[in-house]
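Long-time lurker, first post. I've been practising inverse folding by hand and with some scripts of my own, and I keep getting stuck on stretches where the structure tokens seem ambiguous. Below is the full token string for one chain I'm working on. Before anyone asks, I'm not after the true native sequence, just a reasonable design that respects the backbone. If someone could post their per-position residues I'd love to compare against what I wrote down in my notebook.
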């Protein structure tokens, strides 16, 4: 199987992270009078709409768990020993992260977000274990 098939979900998640950055930047720029107010987040968070703060939180979340996804996926691509199931799991992970973002930016139900977060870890763990124990 072609490595690009496995790396495309990684690239899509990077593009999604950029989209979240743009939303966050738009929100912050729109609602801040002085850019220096952003020197420390505790100084400006109370003055921003909740959706701007949730977007910033989500942006940070996209640099937490997804780092493990990137490492596992790039490692598997480097090993070049994967099948269609691993590619489907990578796409499932990206879909889960996009849904997690949309939930956090809109209705922000923590239990739903936690379920998605835990599901993401199960996918990452299975991808890693599959390379160690199933190959």
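-- Answer (accepted) --
I ran through it position by position. Result:
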């Amino acid at each position: 199987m072609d490595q690009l098939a496995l790396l495309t979900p990684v690239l899509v998640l990077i593009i999604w992270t950029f989209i979240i950055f743009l939303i966050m930047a738009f929100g912050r720029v729109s609602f801040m009078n002085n850019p220096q107010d952003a020197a420390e987040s505790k100084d400006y968070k109370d003055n921003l709409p909740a959706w701007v703060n949730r977007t910033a939180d989500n942006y940070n979340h996209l640099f937490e768990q997804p780092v493990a996804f990137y490492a596992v996926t790039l490692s598997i691509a480097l090993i070049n020993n994967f099948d269609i199931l691993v590619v489907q799991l990578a796409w499932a992970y990206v879909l889960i992260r996009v849904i997690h973002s949309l939930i956090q930016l809109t209705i922000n139900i923590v239990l739903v977000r936690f379920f998605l977060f835990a599901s993401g870890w199960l996918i990452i763990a299975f991808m890693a274990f599959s390379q160690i124990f199933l190959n």
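A couple of notes from the structure itself: The chain has one domain: 3-133. Residues 35 and 100 are 29 Å apart (CA to CA). Happy to go over any region you disagree with.
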